């Protein structure tokens, strides 16, 4: 047992926090948490799952999941991190011992470390797609292209394992470099410039989308719920995505929360992060669906949706090559800050738990993720008919890539979130929570009840419906 973990059990929390240094301000935490939350989940995944699940009703359920499940759990995670003052695994353990609980609770955070590995492996592959499109846009290949040739560019990329591998490797290397050097120094500044820039670029594309003549249809598709199109699996996907897009269920917000100064409101910061994250996702939807309808494309086209629609817009709008290049560069940055937040808790855990130094842990964890990513790369082409768990109806037709996405977003993250909700809602003392959250009694009791009753039941019900 390393020193770090025994001091965690001794409960030397305030001291440990002071030693690790804190975010420079409330803004810094918001920036880092937003950098983690806003990523491929908002711009790549949200539009395509919305398209696959029929639009409005799915969006409504997703928004409800953000407000009633995601936000309360985000607050719970940040709280655990700040109170524990360590990596997620040891924060859970420290609090468990402080509250007189079994140290076995630290396994909750260990589920998260596993989820992080699995997510980063395929996340990096998609990040690679974004890298590849920078070159495509910058060299003017998108200009004036038809929907077919834009589609052909995308299938050409997916069919080329060497290219995919190259970009996946580059993305993973970018993530590893930052994590190896310590996250805080560059991250704050990068996020504070790049996030607003991404926002502006999305607005520009939305502006273009308004000129296509199909904006109204897209708004109706996104915001007019048609419940006949909603399936129980759609509800599971919406719930899972609420966890995925807010970076919940694997300890990221715990890790970042452990650097949050005591005098900052957990509730306010969590609300801010959730709103910004949701705004980016909805903007992405408003940018993409008018293009889908204007060009007679299929909303349910799947994971390739943004790569088959946005390039069309960039090919047609004035200065499209420039905006397209910029857009994909910013998408890489958004994915990069998210990727960093996926690797960081794993590395912190290896440092504290196994006593490895930062470089060794980063390289080790990065290589394992990279290898798993290679399987995702191959599942897009050479192994496209390999479906490892295909004998179960639930996993029928799912390639390795699909399977990793499904297992993490729809099972591991909600499970991690459920356990955090139970841990905070049912095992920590109300007093500790009140002092940590420092909210008005009314708001506190709403949060407390939602976390104790609504969240666990909602996750459990959705699970039972889908898994049984
Ligand atoms: N939230 C990020 C996105 O939407 C992905 C992500 C980063 C994530 N860190 C995470 C998802 C931790 C779950 C858990 O792209």
Automatic annotation (TrEMBL):
Location(s), subcellular: Membrane
GO CC entries: membrane
Organism: Marinobacter algicola DG893
NCBIfam families the UniProt entry points to: Na_transp (NF037979)
Transmembrane segments: 27-44, 56-80, 107-131, 164-183, 190-210, 230-259, 271-293, 322-343, 363-383, 403-426, 446-465
Protein name: Transporter
One function term, GO molecular function aspect: symporter activity
Keywords for the protein's UniProt record, in alphabetical order: Membrane, Symport, Transmembrane, Transmembrane helix, Transport
Membrane-related topology note: Multi-pass membrane protein
InterPro entries xref list: Na/ntran_symport, SNS_sf, YocR/YhdH-like
Domain of life: Bacteria
């Amino acid at each position: 047992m390393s020193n770090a973990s025994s001091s965690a059990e001794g409960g030397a929390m305030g001291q440990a926090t002071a030693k690790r240094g804190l975010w420079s301000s409330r803004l810094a935490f918001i920036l880092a948490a937003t950098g983690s939350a806003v990523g491929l989940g908002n711009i790549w995944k949200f539009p395509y799952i919305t398209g696959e699940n029929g639009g409005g009703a799915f969006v409504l359920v997703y928004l409800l999941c953000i407000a009633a499940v995601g936000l309360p759990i985000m607050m719970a995670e940040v709280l655990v991190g700040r109170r524990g003052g360590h990596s997620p695994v040891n924060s859970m353990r420290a609090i468990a011992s402080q509250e007189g609980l079994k140290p076995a609770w630290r396994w909750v955070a260990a589920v998260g470390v596993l989820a992080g590995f699995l997510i980063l492996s395929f996340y990096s592959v998609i990040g690679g797609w974004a890298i590849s499109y920078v070159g495509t846009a910058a060299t003017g290949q998108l200009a004036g292209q038809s929907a077919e040739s834009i589609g052909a560019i995308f299938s050409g990329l997916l069919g080329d394992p060497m290219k995919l591998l190259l970009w996946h490797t580059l993305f993973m290397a970018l993530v590893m470099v930052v994590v190896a050097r310590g996250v805080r120094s560059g991250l704050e500044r990068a996020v504070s410039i790049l996030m607003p820039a991404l926002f502006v670029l999305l607005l520009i594309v939305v502006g273009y989308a308004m000129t296509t003549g199909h904006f109204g249809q897209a708004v109706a598709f996104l915001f007019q719920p048609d419940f006949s199109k909603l399936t129980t699996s759609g509800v599971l996907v919406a719930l899972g995505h609420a966890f995925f897009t807010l970076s919940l269920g694997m300890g990221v917000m715990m890790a970042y929360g452990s650097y949050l100064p005591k005098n900052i409101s957990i509730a306010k910061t969590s609300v801010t992060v959730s709103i910004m994250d949701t705004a980016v996702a909805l903007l992405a939807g408003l940018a993409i669906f008018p293009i889908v309808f204007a060009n007679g494309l299929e909303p349910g086209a799947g994971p390739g949706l943004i790569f088959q629609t946005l390039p069309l817009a960039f090919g047609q709008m004035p200065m499209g090559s420039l905006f397209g290049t910029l857009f994909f560069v910013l998408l890489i940055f958004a994915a990069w800050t998210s990727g960093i937040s996926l690797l960081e808790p794993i590395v912190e855990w290896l440092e504290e738990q196994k006593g490895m130094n930062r470089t060794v842990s980063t390289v080790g964890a990065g290589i394992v993720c990279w290898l798993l990513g290679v399987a995702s790369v191959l599942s897009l082409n050479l192994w496209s008919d390999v479906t490892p768990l295909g004998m179960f109806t639930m996993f029928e037709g799912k390639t390795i890539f699909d399977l990793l996405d499904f297992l993490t977003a729809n099972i591991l993250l909600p499970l991690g979130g459920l356990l955090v909700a139970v841990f905070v809602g049912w095992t920590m003392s109300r007093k500790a929570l009140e002092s940590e959250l420092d909210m008005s009694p009314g708001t506190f009791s709403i949060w407390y009840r939602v976390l104790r009753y609504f969240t666990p039941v909602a996750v459990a019900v959705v699970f039972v419906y889908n898994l049984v």
